[in-house]
Design goal:
It is built from 18 helices and six strands. The protein is mostly helical and 426 residues long. The protein binds acetyl coenzyme *A (ACO).
């Protein structure tokens, strides 16, 4: 196979190198395209554009494959913990026992939030969306921990601090939104248990940690831990490319994740399923609306830019829903509606022709509801899960020898040269 692609224009032939990834995916290297030809490329939504070379996550949207550092997400969901998966993503390999122990100690040591930060929390309007609070508080961390991240040690400390504190901050925002006192992290509890305890423990009703819920949360977070160059991760890389600090870059990623077409979809799915339930379970009406050309409504939790088959995460999520609800003896009418809707949609020619399958968000909200997480915290749960991915992508981009500040070009379509007219003459 040629390792070049030829571009022929106006009687001239330009040769562009072909880059081949470790799984055989091919890219045309256009690094020198403009300098050599005067052309730029146009690719709205970047559906055909590789922004970097990365060794973190591999996904194949046609085959429904997702691997972190080469390990299938199915294996991690079955055998790993979120903490170990976070280590794998950030450091590039599974930790030894001692490394895992040290990582746990560092997470524990950094899990408290500066008391002065509470004042910010307490002054947000009561109805504030937790994603808005979390993204701005993560940005504010830079003011509380202004040390520059230069040495490997400092970077590791900042990274661990973020992983440890974001979990505490998320639980704090929930407690404050309920008018409750926040609960401190406990050194005797592991990462997920600690989060659940900080969310649900009260002085009058101690929280009883249920093993099934902890495992469901571990799996939820493992499945969200990275997804290569999606909208929020690209935001982290792009903001980070200006060499801004890690907190600001992560905060930008959180803002991107908040959107209903991205991480906000898990909340939107539950709202949609609730509406279907309230209207007597007529999901067919929603299928028809999703298909109608003149209706902007989309079937939330369906479709994906990369997956053109069943999202492997959705498969695991659906199975976990059944397991969790069975184990805790909970019936959720939304799960029944979701399953019936999925079955009907997958037989519908519109969904088949458009390759629209359930994505990770379709079943995840049902798991979160069963754990007791309120709907407006769903995207925050996604953000905690995605944090290791954002961090590892930011770290990789900082060490990338091909790094340049992100600065796309455009095809200008505005007016040609025109001149200023003083206001009295307009
Ligand atoms: N319901 C109905 N039709 C859909 C849906 C949907 N959920 N998703 C895509 N389509 C249709 C579009 O109308 C379009 O149809 P047309 O070609 O006949 O005009 C076609 O499929 C392609 O749609 P695009 O918007 O070009 O697909 P894109 O890859 O840009 O969008 C996205 C992907 C944003 C995920 C889209 O499928 C969507 O809006 N889904 C619903 C929101 C959602 O679940 N988001 C979570 C994604 S996963 C994540 O971020 C964690």
């Amino acid at each position: 196979m040629d390792d070049i692609v030829k571009l022929v224009y106006d009687g001239k032939t330009y040769e562009l190198p072909v880059i081949v990834g470790s799984e055989g995916e091919r890219a045309i290297d256009i690094t020198n395209l403009r300098a050599d030809t005067g052309f730029i490329t146009l690719d709205p939504g970047f559906a055909n554009t590789g922004a970097c070379q990365s060794s973190i996550t591999y996904m194949d949207g046609e085959k429904g494959i997702l691997r972190y550092r080469g390990i299938p997400v199915e294996e991690l969901a079955e055998k790993s913990t979120f903490k170990e998966t976070a280590y794998l993503l950030i450091h590039g390999r599974l930790p030894s026992e001692e490394e895992l122990r040290n990582f746990s100690i560092m997470l524990n040591d950094n899990s408290l939030v500066h008391e002065d930060m509470k004042a910010f929390y307490q002054n947000y309007p009561r109805a504030s969306h937790p994603m808005g609070i979390l993204s701005s508080m993560v940005n504010a961390l830079r003011s509380f921990y202004p040390a520059l991240q230069i040495s490997e040690e400092e970077i590791n400390l900042t990274v661990t601090r973020l992983l440890a504190k974001v979990r505490t901050m998320a639980a704090m925002s929930y407690k404050i939104s309920r008018g409750h006192t926040s609960v401190y992290p406990r050194p005797d509890l592991a990462y997920c248990e600690n989060f659940l305890n900080m969310m649900f423990h009260t002085p009058v009703k101690p929280y009883r940690i249920k093993r099934e819920m902890v495992r469901a949360l571990e799996v939820f977070w493992i499945l969200h831990a990275d997804h290569e160059q999606n909208c929020s991760t690209s935001a982290v890389r792009m903001v980070g490319s200006a060499r801004t600090n890690l907190y600001a870059a992560i905060s930008a990623g959180m803002s991107a994740l908040w959107g209903p077409l991205h991480g906000g979809a898990n909340q939107a799915v539950i709202e949609m399923l609730t509406k279907i339930h309230e209207e007597g379970g007529n999901y067919q009406k929603f299928i028809e609306r999703a298909k109608a050309k003149d209706d902007p409504f989309r079937m939330m939790g369906f479709g994906h830019r990369v997956y053109k088959t069943y999202d492997p995460r959705a498969k695991i999520m659906k199975q976990k829903c059944d397991e969790l609800l069975g184990a805790i003896n909970l019936e959720d009418p939304l799960l029944d509606i979701a399953k019936e809707l999925e079955e009907a949609a997958l037989k519908d020619p519109y969904f088949v022709d458009h390759n629209l399958y359930p994505n990770v968000d379709f079943y995840s909200g049902i798991i979160l509801r069963a754990i007791g997480i309120p709907t407006n915290m769903f995207t925050v749960m996604f953000a905690i899960g995605r944090l290791p991915g954002w961090i590892s992508q930011w770290k990789e981009s900082m060490d990338d020898p091909q790094w340049r500040i992100s600065r796309p070009r455009q095809v200008y379509t505005g007016p040609n040269l025109t001149h200023y007219i003083p206001v009295e003459d307009r």
